[in-house]
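Here is the promised in-class demo. Please do not try to memorize the tokens; focus on the logic of going from shape to residues.
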């Protein structure tokens, strides 16, 4: 099922291995047949680079699109990356069917329960693919790992890998890290009993499990106790990923960001007198973008003094567009934003500026000029936007933060905390944030930035590696 070009970059005997569905590089296939490689960022990329080029490290990931598959077929690759060309239909069932439509929904509590979930034969077929996809990773890791190597498996896509790998290679140190929340017991038990059990047993195959907050770690333990009677000796640790301050501060002062700043100011209008509420998200069902827009609308409705004096800059970048429910949600975000603009907009004022095309430099520009950042997820493993804004902000920014975001554990004291379902409460918090005196805002921003950067990605990664390999 897995094919790989014979002269791929696989190194036999790696000492540190990372496994994740999405890898650090993606390939796109041009019309003329050339392959273009694009490297991504994120915590794992900086973590792995922190262990140095000499370390014998290997990142095992899945080919995701046609460009990736073609790269594997041609034997094109990056040093230190092994991309698995798992059968496209198997991957789609595992990734879209099980990981994104079931596990993501369970951990973020996204079901509309009167009608869903309904686990029948279709789910069972997808589950078989999820197992096959996990097995492909376990086999590749077993083949590539040197004796006694440390393997760090990432996220809900690969929950079965620790158990499968343990059976193949008892000598390895196996860690697993969850970047999402973990569901509360009653919600987790919506899964068919045998599936719930297999997921937990799969994860408990690891020597050590990592979570972003104590809350998610405790939820996992509670599920193990309820379903299996205990955690059978697997160690559980908490590692809250922080923002990468050095990178962000340098990157956000480059010329392309300055250009975007000027363009945004132009769009906002009002000669610099208008306040700006910023949000930047991937368009995930869990990000609660629609309720955020409703709260902003309520602010304009109930407090007319804000009309013409505030602009909501909302960046909602595409995510998982293979799934109809994501496409519908994306359409709803645009619909609600347009409705606000038609109801309240004037010739000289556009209340909502919505951008849906991913542009990192523009996101940084928005972080810099924000007076208020709105981060109101329904539920979120951590939420790095909440941590990045205070680091980059030019003059201080008030943070309206959901208590259901992992970041709340670290940032709650200096944020304006909201219940994400409470639209009225969120509108009130926006008003409080917009009227916060600038000295207080600057002070809070300083403290937020300090907490947000206390565990930079490289340290986050090294701590896990050390905890896993400690005798
Ligand atoms: C978010 C979550 C991660 C997850 C990732 C997958 O960033 O925090 O836990 O791995 O989404 O996103 P993808 O675009 O690969 O489906």
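The designed amino acids, position by position:
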């Amino acid at each position: 099922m897995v094919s790989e070009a014979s002269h791929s970059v696989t190194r036999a005997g790696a000492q540190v291995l990372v496994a994740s569905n999405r890898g650090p590089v993606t390939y796109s296939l041009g019309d003329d047949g050339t392959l273009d490689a694009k490297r991504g960022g994120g915590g794992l990329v900086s973590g792995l680079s922190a262990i140095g080029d000499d370390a014998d490290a290997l990142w095992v990931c899945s080919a995701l699109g046609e460009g990736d598959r073609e790269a594997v077929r041609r034997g094109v690759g990056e040093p230190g990356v092994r991309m698995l060309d798992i059968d496209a239909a198997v991957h789609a069932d595992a990734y879209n069917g099980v990981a994104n439509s079931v596990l993501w929904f369970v951990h973020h509590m996204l079901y509309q329960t009167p009608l869903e979930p309904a686990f029948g034969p279709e789910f069972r077929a997808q589950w078989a693919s999820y197992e096959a996809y996990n097995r492909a990773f376990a086999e590749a890791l077993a083949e590539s790992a040197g004796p006694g190597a440390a393997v760090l498996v990432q996220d809900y896509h690969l929950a079965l890998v620790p158990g499968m790998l343990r059976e193949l290679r008892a000598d390895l140190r196996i860690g697993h890290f969850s970047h999402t929340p973990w569901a509360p017991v009653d919600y987790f038990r919506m899964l068919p009993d045998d599936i719930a059990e297999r997921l937990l047993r799969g994860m408990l195959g690891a020597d050590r499990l990592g979570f972003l907050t104590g809350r998610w770690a405790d939820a996992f333990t509670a599920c193990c106790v309820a379903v299996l009677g205990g955690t059978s000796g697997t160690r559980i640790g908490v590692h809250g990923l922080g923002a990468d301050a050095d990178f962000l501060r340098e990157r956000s002062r480059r010329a392309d960001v300055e250009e975007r700043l000027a363009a945004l100011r132009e769009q906002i209008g009002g000669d610099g007198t208008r306040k700006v509420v910023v949000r930047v998200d991937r368009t995930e069902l869990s990000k609660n973008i629609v309720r955020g827009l409703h709260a902003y609308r309520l602010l304009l409705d109930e407090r007319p003094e804000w009309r013409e004096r505030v602009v909501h800059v909302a960046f909602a970048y595409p995510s998982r567009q293979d799934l109809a429910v994501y496409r519908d949600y994306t359409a709803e975000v645009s619909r609600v934003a347009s409705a606000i603009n038609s109801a309240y907009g004037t010739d000289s004022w556009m209340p909502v500026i919505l951008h849906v095309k991913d542009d990192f430099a523009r996101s940084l520009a928005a972080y810099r000029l924000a007076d208020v950042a709105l981060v109101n997820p329904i539920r979120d493993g951590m939420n790095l936007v909440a941590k990045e804004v205070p680091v980059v902000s030019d003059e201080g920014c008030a943070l309206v933060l959901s208590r259901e975001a992992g970041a709340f554990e670290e940032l709650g004291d200096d944020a304006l905390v909201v219940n994400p379902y409470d639209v009225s409460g969120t509108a009130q918090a926006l008003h409080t944030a917009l009227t916060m005196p600038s000295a207080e805002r600057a002070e809070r921003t300083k403290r937020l930035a300090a907490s947000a950067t206390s565990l930079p990605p490289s340290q986050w990664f090294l701590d896990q590696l050390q905890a896993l390999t400690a005798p």
